[in-house]
Amino acid sequence: MINFLNKYLFVFMGLLCSVSLVACGEGGETNVIAIQHWKDADIRIETHPDPPLAGMSEIVIIITGAHGRPIQDLTVSIRGKNTSPWVQAIQDGMIGVYRRAIDIGEGDVVQLQVRLQHRSEEKILYFPLKLVAG
Questions:
Q1: 78, 86 in Cβ contact below 8 A?
Q2: How far, in Å, are 28, 29, 48, 78 from residue 21 at the CA level?
Q3: CA-angle at 62, arms to 58 and 63, nearest 5°
Q4: For residue 54, what are the CA distances in angstroms to 24, 35, 63, 68?
Q5: Are 80 and 104 in contact (CB under 8 A)?
Q6: CATH 3.30.160.40 applies to domain 36-130
Q7: In what order do the strands lie in the sheet with 87-88?
Q8: pTM of the entire structure?
Q9: What is the per-residue pLDDT across 16-51, written as a single tens digit (0 to 9) for each?
Q10: Which strands, in side-by-side order, build the sheet including 56-64?
Q11: Which of 18, 96, 98, 104 could form a disulfide with 80 if both were Cys (CB 3.0 to 4.6 A apart)?
Q12: Which residues on neighbouring strands pair with residue 61, listed in sequence order?
């Protein structure tokens, strides 16, 4: 009988912890940014904060190849609008993560531009970002 009660107590505590963790979330709206592709790479964007604010936001670019392996031999640059200069993202270790805080501009939606360079090849990808007022 005691083992039976311990088992159910353990399950109940697990469920209680799961519900508590879900309740601790911010509950705010997040930006859904579609993954884009170049050659064999998948390029995913995250913003901090999420959703991004007009003006300065940190942009994180995650680049993975076959089987989710990181791609780290790229030069990655970003800008928030056509008139802004390109700024090189900083590689965060050798894990296919590049990051940089930039002024992404103002408005309801901006087109974040990500330039990927590998040897003599280059590709510019456009990621629409819905901004929130700061």
A1: yes
A2: 15, 17, 21, 35
A3: 145
A4: 26, 22, 25, 32
A5: yes
A6: no
A7: 87-88, 75-79, 109-118, 121-130
A8: 0.75
A9: 445 444 444 444 566 689 999 999 999 999 999 999
A10: 36-38, 41-48, 56-64, 97-103, 90-91
A11: 104
A12: 45, 98
| Neighbour tally for 59: CB within 10 Å | 25
Q: Over the stretch 103-113, which tens digit does the pLDDT of each residue have?
A: 998 889 999 99
Q: Read off the tokens for 28.
A: 């705010």
In the chain, where the domains are located: 36-130
Residues in the chain: 134
Residue 19, φ and ψ in degrees, nearest 5: -65, -40
Tell me the two tokens of residue 124. 């510019």
